[in-house]
Structures are given as structure tokens and as C-alpha cells.
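All the exercises in this workshop are built on plain-text protein records. An example says more than a description, so a record of this kind follows:
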Amino acid sequence: MFADRLSRLINCKEWNVLRKLDSAVRCNSHCSRQDNAFYKSLYKKQSLLNNNCLKQWHTTTAKITYLPQENIYARSILDSSEAYSHCFATPLPSKKELTDLKLDKVNSMMEKSWISMKNEEILKNFELLTYYASQTLESLKLPKYSGIVEVITNRLSSFSDQELQHLLKCLGLWDKRPSDPALRNFWQALDAECVRRLANWSIDEIFLMNDLWFKSRCPRFSNFITKSLTQVNTYKMTPTNLVQYAYLLKINNKVLLDLSSFEHNVEKCIHQLSIEELGVISMAFFKYEAIIKSKYLLIKLMQKLQQNLHTVSDISLSAILKILRNSIDLQIVQQFDILQKALVSRIPQCTLLSLTHIAHMQARTLIYNDELTSLILKRYKQEIKEARLKDIERILFTLYIFNYNPKTTDFYVSAQNELSRSERADEINQFPKSLIYSVLYMLQVNYYPENLLKLVMEQSFLNKLCDNNIHKLDREYLVLDYCIELEHPEYVGPRLRKDINHFLLKRFGSLRKTPMSENQRVNQYSKITTDVVHICRNLLGSESAVHVDTLLPHFSRSDIILCYDPLTKTFVSARDKLSKIPVGSIKWAPKDGKKWYVFVIGVHNTMTRNTLEPTGILMVQLRHLKKIGYTPILIPYLQWQSLGSERLKNQNMISKQLSVVLSPNGQFVLRKLNLISKHLLYTNSHVNLCHSKAIRCLYSDKSRIKNIILRESHTKAEIQAPMNTTSFAHRFMESSEAYSNTLSLTLKVNEDLQIEEIESILQKQWISMSIPEILENFECLSINARKNEESINHPKYHGILEVLKIKLPDFIDQQIHHLFRCLELWKYDRTEEVYKSLLTTLDNECLKRMPGWTIEEILLSNDHFYKLRMARYVEFTWHSLRKLGSKPRKMTPTHLVQYAFFMKMNRRLPIRPYEIEYRVEQHFDNFTIEELAIIALAFSKYEAPIRSNQLMVKILKTLVSEIDNVNDYCLKALIDILRIGGEPEIVNQLEILLKKMENNISRFDVKTLTAVMNLKRKVLMHNEQLTSKILERCEKEIKDMKLTHLESILFALHVFNYDPKTTPFYSTAHNELLDPDRAAEIERSPSSLIHITMFLLKQQVYPEEILKRILDPDFVNRTSKSNAYKLDRNYLDIDFCIEFEHPEYNGPRLRKDLVNHLMKFYGSLKKRSVKKSDSDKTITEVAHIIKFSVVLSPNGQFVLRNLNLTSKHLLNTNSHKQWISMSIPEILETFECLSINARKNEELINHPKYHGILEGLKNKLPHFIDQQIH
């Protein structure tokens, strides 16, 4: 029987049927087509080879050999777990009576009237036809089935969900083409019906229908698939749902989808996923070319892979490695290094394909591991005949990236021999690009595979590759051609045509035109190149001595060229000779006895991460530059960037690089090195250069050393300024080395400058100076101005400020930072137009450069503006904080602290504080108590509560443990944030904190004690012993207390109802307010006096003199600015307190029109909303009970009893306050007891005694976990 079916398949003309055969073969063998003996025997059949249909099939499936394996394996992972069984469709059951259906029975079934059948009968008969069609390989598009298809199409809307599922199961067994016009309407109707029901289905049902659609082999034509995958809410998915969602993304066609929320949910439940499930998720990410942005998820993924390294399958390993290499983040390079070291032990068990992915990840991450690479090469050398062409190419790419020497690495020979075998011809014809790249990588490490080179350079090969369209060619042919010309002149084979060479030069090489828009971000290479050119031109004192040109045509980036004349010992112009050589050709160094040097910038992606050695592309450039007669000088990016932090070390680095190159005797080098050091003084301005021999030599011809940059802990102005929370926070960051790269350093001078020198500086022509000269002279003026306390707004400095404003766009970043440090030394008036104009230009310039700056540079610039007292006025601060706040995951703990500090300094809220709350909680253990206080300042500035109860509890526990050491500033900041975000869950911890504070009252200042009282008032937590100690301190130091502090203390006493007869602080405060020394403060903050008076009156203290003062018509007018709408609402309470409790008062009173106005806005005349508050409902209920009682019992006995019941009811109604102090498990345990008792006694939950409990449950409900809700 099998032979008959096979013969029918061999003679079949439908290529999709043959594809079905291939799928069946691979499913049964679980291996690739190359390893399947049965497949090979079929492949050798001449009849199959001559079949045009099969050739089409072969071409299609050859490109996706590995993809079905991934899909099949992913499905097997899900099928092996019971957790996914409810989301996957089960196949139709195999029925013995249906396996041998006769044709006459089928015909009789088709002759029935299908339109009169019920839905169940239609599906039952259609199932029988399905079994028959699956045996005969018949298609549903045949005319004899058209009537049945039409009936089913019309009935779709009446099918139940289960019937739709059964229909899709049947359709999966038919041979069909969805594009056939005969079936198009049917599939569209079925698709539309599924879309219509989509909103009513659960996630499991949606996934089940997706699985059925995929099995019907029509997913690419389904609108339902697209809508279901894009509209499903990933936040509601369980871990198993996430894995199945990833599987559906993998097997279906790509849709427009953002995987950010999917990634976030995977991150939350990664601990619940197995390594194989993570492999399925990685397949989805890779298919959608999406990177994993979360560093936390990447680290956890790598750790999980290391833990399961010897049990994970090769397919899952490959999938995870692919997404890891695409998602590399420079901040977690160390984790990649650890993973690669762990992978060494897995090499013997890996397949060649997995080895390829390991090597490729190593090359992409640029982390060199010789042991790992050696083991991979050893395996490939043994099994290279089984490797794909693509695998060999990837291994050669890895060797090229890490510069493996062809003389010591025999894999190059093995690869050349393997690629030269005739058995590889078909594969090369199918994938010619892989051969080109393989040859390119060998050639770029200076290995010369002549036979392969001749093959790829043949015009016929090139024409076939690009389909006779040179626009399809890439850069590789340009590099191949110039590698031959420069390093292999012995080559005698075909070369690139001149017209093709010229076209590729214009597209990829030195003739490429790259117009840059104003908003385009300046890349790393361009920034460093600009800095180096600027430094060299100022160093040599000549614009022409430094020439920028493209020496190698196959590199589009420009080079920085210097020409040194040994006879005159000067640098001469390189432009004169190089400009004569045509653009687009190799510019060989002229043989004129001069020395030709080229600065080569080693940006971060051209240097290995762990060894800082040049990668392959950079080594090719260095080697080719030497070939054409130049001496390259490498400037590694990382060392260049570190000039701002380790100055002396980098000065030595520059010395080592230049001393050998520029002069054998070293004299010229030393002199120029001194000039470089001087320039670094102007551009970087971070280093203490007083111990540098080079600097001493530099200034040996001068009378003194003038400008040395030192770190100062406090400047003169800062010492004189009073300390507050802001200055404390900034000084703390200055005292920590962790913030050294992001805080501005202060300039200092060792000697005074003479008046004559200052005058000569002022008389210079500033507009004609170079920028380093301008900065040098302005620094001298700034230091002198700081000593003499001069203002920058003096007219004699206006011309200099105008010059600075004009020259500012030409400053490099380091020079802008240095200008900031100079401006910090001046006194200034922000309203002065000239100075204001300069600051506006500075603000705009920083805004323009901000997109190209790192986080450290942005924070440093913010610190500059802070020191200029301009942080809250400039646009740069707000926009930069908005930018950093949009991606808080990129900030380190120290960045977060400094970011919070600048948030506090800003007038406008850049982001909602809760957006950084998650990162604060994630890095909580890395923060000191002072850093937590700085973060708390940002939250309290905007009255933003911390939403996470876990974070609040952590802060409280830290505060409790550090209470004996914490200072006033930190304690006040943290107490303020506890006051703002105080939740019932932290009451127990707060109680512990307040008890611990009882023994530390004596060392805290009044500000801090006031904050403690505010906290107690806010959370309604009374501690009499602590309050008594605070009041004792306040009575002793009441003269030092501000009016607002007095107000806060009295407010707290009013809330806790302290009796004036036993609390002497009331009289002390009353007497203090009558002190004439308080008059000025009262005029500045009259509202505080009004509030204090109200609190005193409500506690039955009669401050007659104060009342007469605040009710004086002149005082009222000044307070409200003669505008009744600005009148303090507390005047209403004060007026009625006087009327009811102090009729003896004979001073001024509030005018009646003002009283009526306040009554309309705040009193009984205020128009109330229709919705009643809880207090209104309670009052109404009490009134109803009293009224009802009086009617029933005139003698009052019944009234009294009901009033008692009313009081009891109110007590029960408010009992939720006690429930709020319980933990959630205690609440549930107690409520369970009440519930059981109520069931026995048949009590109603609506009884008033349970109202308070229900209120307590309602308030706690958002904090319940799911199990507690159930």
C-alpha cells in the first residue's frame, strides 16, 4: 500500500504535495535531509530529479532546512508538558470503520441534501469526507465539493465555538490551496467569523484557535491570526501563555508587533520558566529581529543557561545564543565573558551548528577567549566535511575578528581545501555570497587562497551573483580588489572592472558623499577625529600642518595626516603633495625623506572588549597604511575617554606612544608632550598636574606655574553660604569618588596675579585669539575675579562675553566644560543682558549637543548649570532629565542618585517620580542612607508618594538600623517621604522607628523634630513620651524656630488634642508670637500666624492680642491683597470660634460681606454635589433614628436607648481604623471567624456593626494577592 502511495507521489505534479512528503520524512527521522538515508535514496531517483516541480520544491526547502526543525522541536517541548494541553488542538480520532471508505458510499453521502441538514449532521458527514480525501489526496477545490463548501460557508455564523474548532480540524487533512478562487470566499468567511468572535474568547481559546488555523496550513491568509497576535494582552498571560504566544509568533508569518510588553512579562516570570521554554521565547525574539533591552533579563537568561548548560538541547542553546549576541549590552560585557568561559565545557557535546552560534556570539561580543576558539577549531577540523558553507564562513569571520595568524592557524588551509572540493559546487552555486565572504575574511588576515580568489573574481561569477545589476553588489568586492592590489601583486587572475570599481567607490569608498543634516547625531569616530584635529592644530600652531584626507579608497572614513621634516624638525604641510593625487586612488606616501604619520581612531567596536587589542577591520587598515608608506598612531577610544578620570596615567600613555614615533632622541617629543599636557589642561581640566615632570619642563621658562586644577571640597562662596538639604546633598556627592566623573571640579590658583598682567589681558584683541588662548586668558581673569569678588556684569568684561558667545559653537565639549568652571568663579546678576545672552547661547549649545552625549556628560553639564545657580532656569536641564528619565534602566545607582538631585533642583517635573521607583527598589542594597535621602528629596519636592510598600518598608528598616548614626538632613528627608507615602502596612515599622528615636532627640535639630511631628500627625500615631521630649526641646529653642515650625507643632498638638492646662508649650508659643523680633517674619508669612491662631482657639487658648492683629482690616487686606477670593479660609473658623467661645472679645471682627463670601465657598452656604459623602450618610442615619425614637416614646426612655445604639453603631462604623492596623492575613483570619459565626446565627452582613469592618476590607483590598481575594 505504501508503495502505491509513493508511486502516486512521485508522479504528482503538485509541488506542495511533494513538500508534504518531505515534512513527513523529516518528522519521522527527526534529522536533516542530508542525514536521512531514505531521503537520499529518493533524491537519487532520476525520475525525481527530472521533475520540474520537484526542483521548485528543492529550491524552496533548501533555504529553510533548519527552520522546520526549530518549529518541530518547539512544538515537541510544548507537547511534552501537561500545562499546554488545554491550548493545543487534539487530532481527529482514528476510526477503523472509516479507514476503507468505498466510493459508492461517499457518492451517496454527497447526493444528500446538505442544506437541510443540522449543523451536527453536516460536520459528521464532512468528517467522513475528510477521511476519504486524506486517503485519496483529493482537494477541496474540486467542483463536486463546491456545493458542500457553499453550505458550510452559509452556516458558519450559526456554528458554536466547538463546531468551528471541529471544522478546522477536518480542514487540516484536506489537500488545498487557499489562493484558489473556488475556496477564497470560504476561507474569508471562516476568517471573518473568527475575527467577530475574537473579543469573546479567553487567551486559552485564542491560542487554541491559532493552533487550529496553523494546522489547517492557511495561517498566512488569516486576518484572525494577525489580529489575535497583535491585540492579545500580554500582561494577563501566565508563564505558560507567554511560551505558547512565543511559539505562535515563531511559526506564523511576521506581524507588526512591539515585543516590549512581552519582554517585561517574561522578565517578571523568568524564574518559573525552564531553559527549553526560554529557548522557545528566544526563537520568537530572533524571528522578529527584536533585541532584549532589559539588562536584568539578559543576565538572568545567561545565568539560567549556565545552570543548565549540560542539559539544554542544541536547538534551544542555539536559539538563546542567537538572541544574546543580538542583544549585547556594553554594561554587562562581564556576564558575556563568564558565559563564554562556561561554554568551554559544553563544546564536545555540541553539534556543528551550535558551535557556529557560539563562535558567532564570541565575534559579535568582541570578547576574546582563545581556549574556546581553539576547541571549536579542533572540532571543525575533524568534521569540516559535514559543515555547511555558511558555518565555515562564520568560523572564518571569528578568526578574522580576533586576528588569528594564518601561519599558526591551519584552519585556513582546511577551509580552502574544503571549499575547493567539487562536492561543494552545488552549494556554492546556491549560496555564492558565503563563498565571497569566506574568501574576503581569509584575504583580510593576509591569507592568499588563489584558486578561490580567481573563482569569485570571474566576471561570470559576479554577473550571476548580482543578476547583471551592479547596484546589488556590496562593499566586499571593493575590499577584495584593493587587498589584491596592496598585498598580492603576484596575483594574475581576473580583477574588478574599472567601471564597477568606480561605482563601488562612490557607494562605499572614498568617493562616497554623506551629507549630514543638522539634527543627525555625530558619531563617536567623528567626535574624536574633530578633537584630535583641533588638538594637533593648536599644538603645532598651524592649520596647514594637519591634513585630513582619505588615503585608502576602500575605507570611507578620513585620516588625520602629519608630515614631519627631520632636517628642520618641524611639521610641514601634507596637503601640498597629497592633494595632487586624484581622489579615489591610493595616496602613497611621497618618498621625499620626510616622515609621514597617520592618526587612526580605534572606536569601541573595533577593539576587543577584554584585551583592548584591535579587531580584524582595524588591523587591515593599520597594515594597509604601513604598506603605502605611513606610520600609523593608534588612539584607542577607551583610553581617550578616560583622559577625564586618570590624567597622569594617560599622560604616560601618550608619552609612550609618541616618544618612539616622533624623535629617536626624545627631545622633540618631550617639548611637544608638554604642549599636549598644557592643552589637556584647557580641554579636560580635571587633573592635578603639580607632580608632572613634563609640566615642570613646560613652565621652566616662565616665572611661576599659574593654573593648576585641584579638587576643592568647599569654595569660598560655599563656606560662607548656610547649609541646607540641597547643599548637603551636593557636598556628599562631592566627597564620594563614585561621582567624580559627573561632578564639576573647582579651579584654584597658587599665586596672585599682578594688576599689570590683568590689564594686559583685558587690552588684548580677543576676537583674533585661538580658542585655547581665549580660555587661558579668561581663566586668569576668573581666578582673579574670585579673589577680588568682582562681578562679571562690569562693563569692562562685556566685550569678552560677546567674543565668548560668538566663539562658543566652535568649542569642543571639553572646552565648554572648562568655560563652565571659569564662569562658576564670578559674581553675577542674572538680569544683566550680556551675561544672560551668553548663558542662553550656552544653554542652546548644550541642547544641540545633548543627543551625542553619554549619561555622564549630561549629568556633568547639569552640575555646571547647578553651580551657576541656573539649573532651574535653563531648558537644557529639563530636556536632559526628560531624556534620561525615559530610559531609567540605563542608569547606574550613582546615576539615579544624581538624577534625583537634579530633579529636586528643577522647577518643572521632568518625569513622574514613580518611573524611577522600580530602579531604586532594584538597586536598593547599593545605596547608602545619604543616597536614599537624596532620592527622597526628589519625591518630597513634588509631593509624590512611593507606591511600593516593599520599598517603604525597606527604607524604614534601613532608617531604624541607622538611627544612631544618621544626620539631621538625611533623617528629615526620609521622614518627609514617609509622611507623604505613609500606608497602613508600614504602621508597625513606624512604631518601631518612633520608639528608637526617643533616645536620640537631643542630637536632632528643630527642623527634624518638626518633621517627626508632621509624620505622627499624618499617620495618626501618638507617642506621648516622644512628643513630650520634642516639646521640651522646642520650648528651650523656641527663639530659633521659624514660624512654620511653630505652626506644625501646634497643628500636631491640636490633632492629638493636648490640653492647654497641662501643656505649657501653648503659652510659650503665645508669648513668642508677641515678641517684637517676630514682626518681620510675620509680615513675610502671615498665613502661618493665621493658622497658629486657629489651632490655639480650637484648643481653647485665647490669644487676644494676636486676634486683634490678624483681624485688623489693614492686615486682612495685606494678606488677601484686597481680593476676597484670596482670603484664607481659616478666617471663617476663627470668626465663629470668637462668636461662640469668646463673647468677651471686643477687638475688630471680619466684615459680614467677607464672612458671607467664605460661607459660600467653605461653609454651609456652599453648593453641595448630588453624591453624599460617608459623613453625610451617617448624619442622616442618626437623625432618622432620633426622630423615630421621639415619635415612639415621649418619655425619652426609648430615645435614650436608641441614642446609645446610635453611639455604638458609630463606634462600629469607625472600627475599620483598628482593622487597618492589622496585617492582611490577620484580617482574613478574623473575618473568617466572623463569617462562620454569622452562618450559624444567620446574621446579615448589612448589620451596622459590620460596616466599619467592610470599610477596612475595602481599603485593604488593592493590596490582597490573588489567593487572598479568592
Observations:
- The first helix runs from residue 2 to 10.
- The first strand starts at residue 546 and ends at 549.
- Residues 751-852 form one domain.
